[in-house]
Amino acid sequence: MTLSTFSKDNSSFLNDQPIHPFDQLTGDEIIRVASIVRKHDISNDYIFNTITLKEPNKKHMVSFLGWDNSEPRVASIEREAFVLVLEKETMKFFEGIVSLTSGLVKSWKYVPDVQAIFTLEEMLAVNNLVTTDEKVRLECLELGITDMSQVFADPWSVARHNDYPGRDIRIMNALLYMRTSEEDNQYAHPLDFVAIVDVNKLEVLTIERTQPRSSKFTRASIPQQNHNFLPKFMDKQDYRQDIKPIIIQQPEGVSFTVEGNEINWQKWNMHISMNHREGIVIRNVNYRDGDERRPLFYRIAISEMVVPYADPSSPYNRKQAFDVGEYGFGRCANNLTLGCDCVGSIYYFDADFNDHEGKPYRVDNAICLHEEDYGILMKHTDYRNNLSYSVRSRRLVISQIVTAANYDYGVYYYFYQDGTFEYEVKATGILSTSVLAEDETPGGFGTMVAPQVNAQYHQHFFTMRIDPMIDGLNNSVQQVDVLSLEYPTGSIKNMNGNGFTAEHTILKDTLQGQANSNYDTSRFWKIVNQDKIHPYAQVPVGWKISSSHLAPLYAKHDSLVAERAGFLKKTLWVTPYDENQMFAGGDYCNQSSGKDTLEVWSNSKVQDIEQKDIVVWYTFGITHLPRAEDFPIMPVEYCGFTMKPSNFFLRNPALDIEPTNASINQSVLTNAEKNESCCSK
């Protein structure tokens, strides 16, 4: 990714738009926050790990946005930053709250027994370290590598290391690979050892070799065969020659408007931003229903992503990446490229983050906004007179792409014309590979995708934090199960045996608010407002949550990964709103103990969740048993979830979408013998 360095002379960092309380910090604000911190404690030299927006007070914001009129409307919101620094001399972490409004440090405290999120600078430093370390060089020499510029590392969180327990040392695993040329695919040449690195001291603590299973070899050699995919390695004649261009055009312009970070698209309205940890954050989602603007969601963002691997042998049993809490979806954001990552008429948003010196840097084109045709929205043909009615669907797309070492994740927020919201992840990139001896097999824990190259079994879990306000702040969650009638076939109440019904259960407390999916009952959940009853359906207005990607956690429930990510044990969690509970894996999940997680909060005290200001945590994911077709680069694997209005509107809210036809969308015939026809008559 390309990063833009901040300069006072660089006008691109200056924000001419008034700053909204939900806007992420600008480059100027990051500089100012760092300056305030240094003036507050001039005796210390700090490494700035994080400078980001402190989430505004929700009660004040709800009033500021006009959703709560019970008291005089709040006219202004204090602008605050959350700061996390590492004291260079002691390597201790401190966190603080800085008021940009007053220019003062409001709070400052030492945070013991934690390790904060890793930064890009640290990961690059680890990669450089392994090329100069003597212990690594000697290992490579034994494998036949004499040129250390061929060696590359993927720095991974250590999870928890038996030889270095606790969080006193900031540790990373350096998974090591070789390249045969500058842009060679290193994952085709995995090495048989990892370096354990003290990130603070930039020192290799120890080397850990992998041991071949059931092999005559004591050590695996390096796979030598190249498996490349970049254009420089391809002959142009190897590309398919029968592909014709598809051009997406909007000759009259786009249907959305952008004011600062606020988006209006047809009946939808929302605010977007990006922070270092969650990446895209969508706030204040509302929908215009006739003359009424109805609130739907206060805040939606990914809270955590966990990728546990299946191989029980060391060091692979420590592979359990928390890609949000350990690395950050924002900091790992790509610079998106016009015509490649997004096509059509594109609007980009940039994102500003901080470096170790407290200076801002910019990720250009971090967020892509555009519209897509999405096939048929609704259609009916009357067979009696052959009259056909057809309306095409369109969706608004807000997206980013994250590169987490080997994997790349396309993250998509979709808004549809019928009120549907969808969150989708497109997983691609390169498999995290390990080496096998020449006579070794994956042992039931992976797939050999090339000679001696093992792609280990693993899972991808995504936990969303959904802060709803369905027609108001007080909401409930209703569990819906479809059940066959208990009456036997032939009985008066079920003569033909075909009867089934739906059971609706309101989850009343934080114990009931822990629920798993159930395919036997087609289970789903609805976020409802019991104070608002639909006039026709006579049920609370609500929004249905569902997904076809609800994999169970296959690791033991007393495993290390389950201890650190206990929220993966359930599909759904519902908790009362708490401004200090933003991340399912805790504020500091790097090398975490598991004592500050969603599972712990939910079980520490039983709390009421019926018609309260609640937060819904929803986990979806996939189990990935790699295929040979996933290498050397993986085609996209899709997963996600949807939220649909369920007895929220009086009728289909898309009835006012006008049918399109060939003259509007400029469709043409490839078969000239056919007659053109309209979509609606």
TrEMBL record:
Q: Does the keyword Metal-binding apply?
A: yes
Q: Which UniProt keywords apply?
A: Copper, Disulfide bond, Manganese, Metal-binding, Oxidoreductase, TPQ
The transmembrane segments are none
Record-annotated active site: 323 (proton acceptor), 407 (schiff-base intermediate with substrate)
Which residue numbers delimit the Copper amine oxidase catalytic domain? 247-655
- List its EC numbers: 1.4.3.-
Q: Which residue positions does 2',4',5'-topaquinone occur at?
A: 407
Annotated Copper amine oxidase N3-terminal domain ranges read: 117-211
**UniProt record, GO biological process:** amine metabolic process
How this protein is processed and modified after translation, per its record? Topaquinone (TPQ) is generated by copper-dependent autoxidation of a specific tyrosyl residue.
| Domain Copper amine oxidase N2-terminal: start-end pairs | 20-110
Instruction: Quote the SUPFAM superfamilies the UniProt record gives.
Output: Amine oxidase catalytic domain (SSF49998), Amine oxidase N-terminal region (SSF54416)
Known Pfam families for this protein? Cu_amine_oxid (PF01179), Cu_amine_oxidN2 (PF02727), Cu_amine_oxidN3 (PF02728)
Query: Could you cite one Gene Ontology molecular function of this protein?
Result: primary methylamine oxidase activity
Cofactor binding description: Contains 1 topaquinone per subunit.
Needed cofactors, names only, are: Mn(2+); Cu cation; Zn(2+)
From which residue to which does the signal peptide run?
none
Spell out the reaction equation it catalyses. Answer: a primary methyl amine + O2 + H2O = an aldehyde + H2O2 + NH4(+)
Write out the similarity annotation: Belongs to the copper/topaquinone oxidase family.
Q: What is this protein called?
A: Amine oxidase
Please tell me the species this chain comes from: Thamnidium elegans
Q: What is the lineage of its organism?
A: Eukaryota, Fungi, Fungi incertae sedis, Mucoromycota, Mucoromycotina
